[in-house]
């Protein structure tokens, strides 16, 4: 009788331990690990993932160095052929090209429709936005300062700052809903209209 009680307790404890893992798998929140790394220990997995991330970052940086100048020339050529200012061409096409990795990598996670995966996606997109508005902006401002360039884009600056403030207000909301996404999405075309209106009003 005592042995039977002990067996029942062991079964209950085993079920309690395995249940969260089964629930996580059912919810699609199990940790994803590449097949070729699953046989390694956790420490070896972390080391391999860091090396892989470093190599991919280096490869991406090399691609940027190779293709950034031709891409700028191509956008300028498109603007000349269409008779459209180069800024508007770059404003539409450059973000799509530079942020394509975040868009592509961010699609699979929300499709699982779990709190964890959606939180990861939002964190990744917000991190990319912070990177664009700090590190990339610092490089841009350094080029302006050291090259002695003249800043004559007050309309574009006002539009960018306004969009940043509005998006920051949405990002600080404790709960993200569909209409928040629609609002942020509409800021993209509206910002172009805002710039055109400021330039028509006399801003440079």
Automatic annotation (TrEMBL):
Lineage: Eukaryota, Haptista, Haptophyta, Prymnesiophyceae, Prymnesiales
Pfam family membership, one: Na_Ca_ex
Keyword Hydrolase (UniProt): no
Protein's name in the database: Ca2: cation antiporter family
Signal peptide positions (record): none
Region (Disordered), start-end ranges: 13-42
GO cellular component: endomembrane system; membrane
Major localisation: membrane
Biased composition (Basic and acidic residues): 13-27
GO biological process assignments: intracellular calcium ion homeostasis
Keyword line: Ion transport, Membrane, Transmembrane, Transmembrane helix, Transport
Superkingdom: Eukaryota
Annotated membrane topology: Multi-pass membrane protein
One MF annotation (Gene Ontology) recorded for this entry: calcium:proton antiporter activity
Location within or outside the cell: Endomembrane system
């Amino acid at each position: 009788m005592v042995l039977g009680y002990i067996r029942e307790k062991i079964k209950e404890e085993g079920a309690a331990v395995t249940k969260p893992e089964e629930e996580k798998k059912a919810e699609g929140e199990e940790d994803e690990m590449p097949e070729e790394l699953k046989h390694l220990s956790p420490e070896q997995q972390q080391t391999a993932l860091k090396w892989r991330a470093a190599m991919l970052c280096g490869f991406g940086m090399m691609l940027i160095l190779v293709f950034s100048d031709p891409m700028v020339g191509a956008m300028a050529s498109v603007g000349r052929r269409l008779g459209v200012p180069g800024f508007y061409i770059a404003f539409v096409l450059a973000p799509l090209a530079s942020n394509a990795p975040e868009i592509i990598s961010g699609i699979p996670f929300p499709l699982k429709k779990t709190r964890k995966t959606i939180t990861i996606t939002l964190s990744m997109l917000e991190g990319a936005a912070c990177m664009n508005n700090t590190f990339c902006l610092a490089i841009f401002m350094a080029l302006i300062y050291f090259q002695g360039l003249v800043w004559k884009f007050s309309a574009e600056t006002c539009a960018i700052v306004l969009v940043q403030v509005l998006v920051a207000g949405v990002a600080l909301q404790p709960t993200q809903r569909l209409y928040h996404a629609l609002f942020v999405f509409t800021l993209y075309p509206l910002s172009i209209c805002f710039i055109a209106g400021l330039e028509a009003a006399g801003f440079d």
